[in-house]
């Protein structure tokens, strides 16, 4: 598989499929190639775009270089945009949206930006819940309790306890535990789960912020607040969709926006 070397020496593994203008897909928390939504989405977009998917640092076939800093992940995504030809449109899912915004603000040549439900949920629920999540996550990871950290995250995003129990007993749980430390990376990117308004004000890239019609109101509020903070953005709702957005519903919206 193709690989690139980021500025700090971290190896970033990626895939490239399709033909057409370049588009980079950015995963959210606990996702990687082969275990997330981007593979199916890439298949549905490959007839219109050259699609780049990648393992964010600390995941899958990519390596990691401690200590973590948001700037290092920005360098990773910027390097992939360079590998795509120096400029690309970017679609980012969930907390990956925070990475895409930071990269756009840093000056990467992003020709268009689409975000799906960036989880700035403190806009709706206040700061206390996010602060408590951060403290508990850091405590669990510091103690080496990767399973506990994953359970905390899944509970936070609304996965029912019985579903989590079933996943813990399944063969894929070890894969989750392998990338559990990256939960702290996404949490750092979200920085208290508030829209980064000062950063967003510097981003003039044409942007669409999407949310699912069946998603919780906190995610709708987050999407609207994000779109409002960006100088050149609109908010769109994909009716009937949740945070687990269906590729068949998402792909046409991206084609329409980027096409």
From TrEMBL:
It comes from the Bacteria. One of its GO terms (molecular function) is hydrolase activity. Keywords: Hydrolase. Gene3D superfamilies: alpha/beta hydrolase. This is Alpha/beta hydrolase. Residues 38-248 form the AB hydrolase-1 domain. InterPro entries: AB_hydrolase (IPR050471), AB_hydrolase_1 (IPR000073), AB_hydrolase_fold (IPR029058). Pfam families: Abhydrolase_6.
